[in-house]
């Protein structure tokens, strides 16, 4: 019971959904709909999203979670001898129980910088394959996986995305963007990447709902025609086709109809910036220079303990020499008052 | 827009959730919870369900859909050379896009009778393996899959379940029961199988939520200790671990706390019986003698067309000679007035 | 030791290789060659085989065994949601430990007639998919698997092959022919199908070496360009690329250079016909009307026991009413004297 | 044709088999044997190998190649959520086309030292899992893969093997040793590890035949009872059960009956030492300090070109600054005169 009184900054999926979505569930609860995503709300949800995609020709599908979306897309995209290129901190590498390998595909891990995968490391890996005299003894890199924002909350600049796109084009690679926190990335402090940019650079990407205001659900946008083919078959085969699919379409319709998705995530970033500034003001090192809703601070044990009395946050790693990396995460549901309280407490650490 | 005015008997997943669940979503929407099913509602949901399991020692996990639950359980249960025994009409065989085979396992198909798998056909298949002189050239049957109720709405009697259990024990097979419509099966007209019986006979089974009053979700009950090990790892690997897991626990808590699950599904069966009797009274053959919420009628084209003017129902198959099999399905959300209307229209066919 | 004195008609892989191949091994044993099938003998072996293919544009790869060849080809040919159509008696269904399912693909089983798959059953299955309103809930049939000769030793006529080809073209299916015993099939008594025909009808097929005079090895012929792509990668990934690949190329070169493959298998059929006639003359029913090297006879227990004193043959199944199906198999290594002995013993059963 | 006159030091699988094996093929070629490894030569081959295993209780199976053996063992050993720990230079990681991942399992890559995996890195990885609070989000390391000798020709000392064994015992990991070149490792210059040691430390290992005097084939020794169960089913399912299995048993019988395996590989090491000394004498750096049949030299382009006029060797990598790493490999078939010639040519580089 005590925990209820604690203030949660542990993650961005600790509350239900924004009120507009709850309201939409209420209003539609006695209506009948067709099953498996073949309904009017899915149709409307797609239409609203497409307004932000710059006119690309895309298929949009609604799935229930991020791991599911990642491995289903990858399973659909690759032939058995093909592999994925990702950063060492990629969610598919370290947080999804080997789901990608479980579908039969190798991940070629690259060293990341500030949580990001560089175009040059992708090019090097692709070039290694291209020049290899024993191609049949190694896997063919075919899909580049990045997250926007990254696992450290950092974001790729337009020019970094352009570089990745160029390398992908040069080597015939798919660029797939995991947007579990896409809203926070697009609302990054000082950022200038738009959803239209994401749509232009990626072959496929998903717009995270679970962490950005929905009860659950991710909207997968498929642009490359090769990736569109039979995708609903892959969804069903991988348990990713919700019987009451309209619940997903309805949520994304609600989030995108009036730009709610962007305002609630931008607000979370604004709150996160206050926390970031508080750490900086107190002379506390930030593990990464994140302009988004996740802030990674380097704390001593005693400071960590002090904050733990009132706040729930995520322990990341022991950095040695008495220092620890922890994550404070704001979200669409973060209360400004809670942030003010945290900021104050940081200032007196 | 016209379709909105039509009355849907096409399936049991065409409406949101029972009001009690919507209300629970509303009441908890501003609360914070731990992620991935490690929260108080999942704990409470399990406790409520366990009251109906006759004291067996079980692990209960909440997943988002039936296909996902089936293949995740099977992937966890079997080694690569082991296979599943199921009826020819089994959902995993004909409606899940080869999800089981996609995890690497063969399904050994048996001819069904009234939608059911007989203990004798299981025994014969198991015995064939046991006596085989070339065991390493064939798969080892290891898991028996049945649905309760079956795809034709029929239910296994206690003695049929006992027979299956005995054969499974004799040959070292797991008995797994797909309970997508478990509520309707337990509420079968004239039936006497209880959830306690299901728990006693099965090594694992799932309690369907999606088709029985929830927005979405299935509760998988694992009894056999071999099946319990590391199951959460399999869930995560297969995209079956919802980030906001409490939404599932909360729904099952609501359904089981006061027996709501049983009353709403029993009511659907009562409505279905009215439809069944109406067909019989009109001299219309029923494709199967179903005591549950699905009724399969044999109609001429003209009768089918007539009913199609007002009702949405599912076309099943062309039986030849001008006859067609169609399904009328009631559910937890079926309106008694709609049933009365249908009954009346059937009487004048 | 006793078994050594017994005469083996149990299968067609119970002896090493024809003397010409042993000799080729001896002559080349001190030579150096490139690895993994990139050597002069593989090149020459391909050239010799191509002389019999009617000028089609093909890639030929050498693998070590039939199960391996079947599942590697299927894994390379299909996307995860696609499936195989085969007869109920197909080797991939009942004798390869679920290898095809282990690669993730469902087999859609069809009732066979005389061991053969009919074009009409293929068409029906393909048409079911085509007309299905729920395509994403079922697998897409994409590859038709047949054996030539079949598991019962029967062969498809040219017109049956043409029918299969036409249906495959109509529905966009691959036709793949398992030719583990291709030599015996092409040498069928009264048959008129040539290897050129096989090459014309199939998208891919393999020429069995293991059962047709080689120590081991199968030559997989890929005609359809879609199946050729990156096939060596699939081979390596599936452990199907022999380090000393020239040993395979050399064997096929030896078998095809002067038509040895055809003469030794034709001779086996001639021997089998003597056995067939002997059974017929004695009034013993043949389980299938096989014009190839496998003869399936229906014997009483006492006759079976009598022949077991001197011969090793394969027990197939209990037919009930005191009758049993057994297989007598000749091969490239069958001794005419042994056949004469068997024929005589059959005549006095 | 020119290449025939070149002297091959490119690898250890460029010639057929040692004369004793060719002779054994000749002597047995007219005999009949049971199929699929159920024959007297497989039995005898096992018996001869077991004489070197120190009395451990083991099952021995004969497979056709290294990649096949590795992935079949791993597929049999692991459950879907379990992973492999290996060095970054491991054959399964960089030379087998993702075969392990193709069976669904992740490889957790560790930085190697001199081609070897350290017990401490294994312990660290296993400890990370053990301490993890999110076990279900990551794979469980379960099998440690090492090669003996390593890809750089180096060998683990007894104490290194003991350390690995101890860590495996502590964390419940399988230790699996890829012995593609086991003979050369056991015959390492200055080495003291015996096959008995390998059998004592490993849960499973394979004795390479392909690179150590056989035409083809590897003998997989299974010690841990968990790994023995149903292994023949895994072999068949993975195309790893040769129809004429006696060809494999016969080769291993021939290699182990009088210790031929050890003498021919030891001789190859003696030849390799001459080459190693020649490089050292000429002041040429060796990329690794290998006491076995593979020698990795660091050459300038001009020296590489000079040696290329007469010898075939394997190019490994561009080391930058005008230097290149190349491999000279001796084998059971290496001619002492060829080595003398190479030694002389190195001395005048």
Compact description:
The structure is a homotetramer of 349-residue chains. By secondary structure, chain A is an alpha/beta fold.
Primary descriptors:
about 350 residues, 16 helices, three-stranded antiparallel β-sheet, alpha/beta, homotetramer, globular
Task: Characterise this structure.
Four copies of one chain form a homotetramer. Chain A is of the alpha/beta class. Helix content of chain A is 43%, strand content 18%. Chain A has 16 helices and twelve strands. Chain A has helices at 2-5, 19-28, 40-50, 66-77, 91-94, 99-102, 119-131, 158-171, 182-186, 195-201, 225-228, 231-237, 246-257, 260-281, 301-308, 336-347; strands at 7-8, 59-63, 82-87, 107-110, 140-147, 174-178, 204-208, 218-222, 294-300, 311-312, 314-320, 323-329. In chain A, helix 7 (119-131) runs parallel beside helix 8 and helix 14 runs parallel beside helix 16 (336-347). The first copy, chain A, is globular, with a radius of gyration of 21 Å.
The oligomeric state is homotetramer
The proportion of residues forming helix of chain A, as a percent range, comes to 40-55%
Order of SSEs of chain A: HEHHEHEHHEHEHEHHEEHHHHEHEEEH
* Main sheet record of chain A: 7 strands, mixed
> What is the first-to-last residue Cα distance of chain A?
26 Å
Largest interface: A-B, 48 and 49 residues
Number of DSSP strand runs of chain A = 12
Strand order of the largest sheet of chain A: 2-8-7-6-5-3-4
Q: Given the structure, what is the number of helices of chain A?
A: 16
The outline of chain A comes out as globular
Mean pLDDT of chain A: 97
Structure classification of chain A = alpha/beta
Rounded to an integer in angstroms, the radius of gyration calculated over CA atoms of chain A is 21 Å
Catalogue the unreliable spans of chain A.
Answer: none
What fraction of the residues of chain A are assigned to beta strands by DSSP? Answer: 15-25%
């Amino acid at each position: 019971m005590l925990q209820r009184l604690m203030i949660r900054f542990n993650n961005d999926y600790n509350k239900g959904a924004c009120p507009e979505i709850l309201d939409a569930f209420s209003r539609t609860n006695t209506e009948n709909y067709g099953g498996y995503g073949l309904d009017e709300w899915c149709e409307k949800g797609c239409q609203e999203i497409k307004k932000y995609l710059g006119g690309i020709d895309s298929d949009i599908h609604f799935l229930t979670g991020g791991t599911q979306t990642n491995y289903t897309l990858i399973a659909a995209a690759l032939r058995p001898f093909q592999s994925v290129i990702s950063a060492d901190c990629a969610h598919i590498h370290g947080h999804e129980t080997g789901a990608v390998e479980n579908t039969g595909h190798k991940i070629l891990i690259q060293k990341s910088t500030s949580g990001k995968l560089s175009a040059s490391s992708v090019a090097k890996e692709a070039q290694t394959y291209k020049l290899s005299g024993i191609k049949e003894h190694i896997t063919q890199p075919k899909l580049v996986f990045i997250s926007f924002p990254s696992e450290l909350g950092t974001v790729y600049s337009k020019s970094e995305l352009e570089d990745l796109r160029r390398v992908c084009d040069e080597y015939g690679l798919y660029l797939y963007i995991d947007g579990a926190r896409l809203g926070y990335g697009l609302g990054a402090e000082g950022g200038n990447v738009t959803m239209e940019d994401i749509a232009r650079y990626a072959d496929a990407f998903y717009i995270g709902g679970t962490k950005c205001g929905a009860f659950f659900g991710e909207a997968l946008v498929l642009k490359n025609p090769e990736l569109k083919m039979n995708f609903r078959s892959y969804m069903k085969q991988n348990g990713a086709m919700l019987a009451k699919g309209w619940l997903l379409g309805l949520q994304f319709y609600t989030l995108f109809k009036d730009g709610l998705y962007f305002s609630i995530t931008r607000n979370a970033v604004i709150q996160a910036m206050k926390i970031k500034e508080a750490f900086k003001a107190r002379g506390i090192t930030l593990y990464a220079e994140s302009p988004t809703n996740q802030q990674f601070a380097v704390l001593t044990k005693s400071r960590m303990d002090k904050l733990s009395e009132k706040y729930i946050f995520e322990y990341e790693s022991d950095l040695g020499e008495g220092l620890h990396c922890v994550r404070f995460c704001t979200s669409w549901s973060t209360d400004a008052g809670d942030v003010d309280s945290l900021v104050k407490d940081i200032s007196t650490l």
